[in-house]
From TrEMBL:
Any coiled-coil regions, as ranges: none
Protein name as it appears in the record: 8-amino-7-oxononanoate synthase
Listed SUPFAM superfamilies: PLP-dependent transferases (SSF53383)
Catalytic function, reaction form: 6-carboxyhexanoyl-[ACP] + L-alanine + H(+) = (8S)-8-amino-7-oxononanoate + holo-[ACP] + CO2
UniProtKB keywords: Biotin biosynthesis, Pyridoxal phosphate, Transferase
Pfam family, one: Aminotran_1_2
Occurrences of domain Aminotransferase class I/classII large (ranges): 43-371
Family: Belongs to the class-II pyridoxal-phosphate-dependent aminotransferase family. BioF subfamily.
EC code(s) of this entry: 2.3.1.47
Top-rank EC class of the record's enzyme: transferase
Higher taxonomy: Bacteria, Pseudomonadati, Pseudomonadota, Alphaproteobacteria, Acetobacterales
Metabolic or biological pathway: Cofactor biosynthesis; biotin biosynthesis
A GO molecular-function descriptor: 8-amino-7-oxononanoate synthase activity
């Protein structure tokens, strides 16, 4: 018997199919050095955010296993109840040290961090100014807050200045990605910090793609006074979790007010231990941290593209079908590169998104660039 609910789902899926926008998840076995196995095929992955390959690092795995054996698999409760195992304080200390802030708060994920932080700080009568290309979970947090949500054109500081003056607000957050996740470019953080302090607004940077890979691992905001530095432990740090680095008072307020911190179970001890081990590697190995960007530059140089500003390099192809065909052509040549389609990116800007890691080999990057030049750029 088909219910109205099933009919609804089937119709929605058919319209996604018709627009080449239906997503499918494929089982993938990830191995060290950016190798991935899919349907029995060995692929070199340029689609993982594991920029330092730390998810596969022996010391990180060993730390995770040891903590699991000592403390168990799960946290057992939210952190405010009994889930605050001792490793949490160490992790928050390491994050604050890396970011040179007074304190840090760890969340279950980056998404949970953004949907918790923004509503804890602003509400009705306030405003959130957001770069139009900022990550979906910043928008989600801003909408949840009940504050006015005011997008500004990508990296357009002049337009933002105009908006700040044109709208009345009591408190305001200016929110931006440090590195834009689908474009790989960086926000003008110093200029944004100046504007924020001139207007008395609070700058929040999402450094999901900056920590571990820019400024010797310290991230995009390093060297600039940014009061709200959010990020994830799920990309270059190799594990899972999110964080906010901020002043002691702000972090304490967040522990008291952020609903996605309070009403959810703490991270498993093994996940926290892995992040500590990864941050130790990041803090002590600047050459490791520099490698993903170096590899991305190698690729953009080889193709005559604008020099990469981060480990992420987009190749915008336009139509979703074109991006899917390019993805298939790369897979046939042994490269795993994911096509990114709307609604993740704006309509008409479907693209290939290349993510470079420390573990890639230069010869493979050159083979990749050759394939892109001869089979994709010419066809497009
Ligand atoms: C991936 C990402 C997030 C979400 O982080 P998770 O830990 O995966 O939930 C947030 N912001 C940006 C910019 C991201 O790229």
């Amino acid at each position: 018997m088909t219910t109205t609910l099933d009919q609804f789902a089937t119709t929605k899926l058919a319209s996604l199919d018709a627009a080449s926008l239906r997503r499918r998840i494929n089982p993938i076995t990830r191995c060290p050095n950016a190798i991935a196995l899919r349907d029995g095929q060995r692929l070199i992955s340029f689609s993982c955010n594991d920029y330092l390959n730390l998810s596969q690092h022996p010391a990180v795995i060993a730390a995770s296993v040891a903590a699991t054996q000592r403390y168990g698999v799960g946290a057992g409760a939210s952190r405010l109840v009994t889930g605050d195992h001792p490793l949490y304080r160490t992790l928050e200390r390491r994050l604050a040290d890396l970011k040179t802030t007074a304190d840090a708060v760890v969340f279950g994920s980056g998404y949970l961090a953004n949907i918790g932080i923004i509503p804890a700080l602003v509400g009705a009568g306030d405003a959130v100014f957001i770069d139009e290309l900022a990550h979906a979970c910043i928008w989600a947090g801003a909408k949840l807050s009940g504050a006015a949500v005011l997008p500004f054109p990508h990296n357009d500081v002049a337009h933002l200045t105009h908006l700040l003056a044109a709208h009345p607000w009591r408190h305001a957050i200016i929110a931006t990605d440090g590195v834009f996740s689908m474009d790989g470019d960086r926000a003008p953080i110093a200029a944004l910090a100046t504007i924020a302090s001139t207007h008395g607004a609070w700058l929040m940077t999402d450094d999901a793609h900056g920590i571990g890979v820019l400024n010797a691992g310290r991230g995009t905001a390093h060297g600039t006074a940014v009061p709200l530095q959010m990020g994830t432990l799920s990309k270059a740090v190799g594990g899972y979790g999110g964080y906010l680095c901020a002043s002691a008072a702000v972090c304490d307020l967040i522990r008291n007010r952020a609903r996605s911190f309070i009403y959810t179970t703490g991270l498993p001890p093994g996940v926290v231990a892995a992040a500590i081990a990864s941050l130790d590697l990041i803090a002590t190995d600047p050459d490791l941290c520099a490698r993903p960007l170096r590899h991305a530059r190698h690729f953009t140089d080889a193709l005559g593209l604008p020099a990469a500003q981060s480990p992420i390099v987009p190749l915008i192809l336009g139509a979703a079908e074109t991006a899917l065909a390019a993805q298939a052509s790369l897979a046939a040549a042994g490269f795993l590169v994911t096509a990114i389609r709307p609604p993740t990116v704006p309509d008409g800007t479907a693209r290939l998104r290349f993510a470079f890691t420390a573990g890639h080999h230069e010869a493979d990057i050159e083979r990749l660039a050759n394939h892109v030049r001869t089979s994709i750029m010419i066809a497009a």
